[in-house]
Specification:
Length: 290
Amino acid sequence: MKNRVIKGSGKSLFKSSRFKLSVTLLVVLLIAVLAFFTLHGQKSSSNNQKTILLGSSPGPYSELFLKGIKPILEKEGYHVTNKSFNNLLNADVALSEGQVDLSVDQHTAYMKNFNTEKKANLVALTPIPTVPTGIYPAQKITLKNVAFGDRIAIPNDPANTARAYNLLVKAGWITLKKGTDLIKATKKDIATNKYNLKITEMDSATIPRSKQDFEYVVLPGSVAYSAKISTKKILLAETLRSEYRLVAVTTKKNAKTAWAKAVKKAYQSTEFKNYVKQHNNDNYWVLPNN
């Protein structure tokens, strides 16, 4: 009698275990199927996205996008909106977190530095028109008046700091050590300082209102634009390296979406190039080669 009970209990336990295993496998399968369709749906939704949210920061590049690119995209059925940030760093953080779709206010060197520092995955879609960095007058109005001990202000963010040192080399005021990575040049890389210039690295946005404290200042094009300083006043413009050409930027996951391709196409269109030519007074914009 006891043996029969034990035998029956074993069969019942075996059947129960098989049932639980089957249920578990079914649940896992359902989760996998749901995950697949969810991800597929998200990808499809992103690719079919018809609203593009620009994360803008002060300067001419977002303005050029809104005036020259937005109308082209709207003809293609896209709705373009804008969210303003007080600086490029905040705009890039928002972009990397998916709060906005696009930025048009940075060059490749800045983007790569941001990716390194923030462990982000921003990528360039296409080169866009660029305003070069230049040496501008402050207390002195010509380069030939440079003298021993003159003070010069340059941007303090790594990408534009290196850009400024390259410009001082072009002016013949300093030289850099042999083997210096020109995209990462710092004050420590200076080999000779012909006039013993007193170089101050500072927030580029504050340089225009500090001109009274310097003989010369180095300003990125966007900063000069925001401060309403005409590019006609540039004493020496940089030789624009590819790393310093402005680019339209998005996240890696959005780089191949239909809307991202539409942005790239718009920047490379004849319509946009004609728009820039019509609004390029004093050769303000340096156009990409594409």
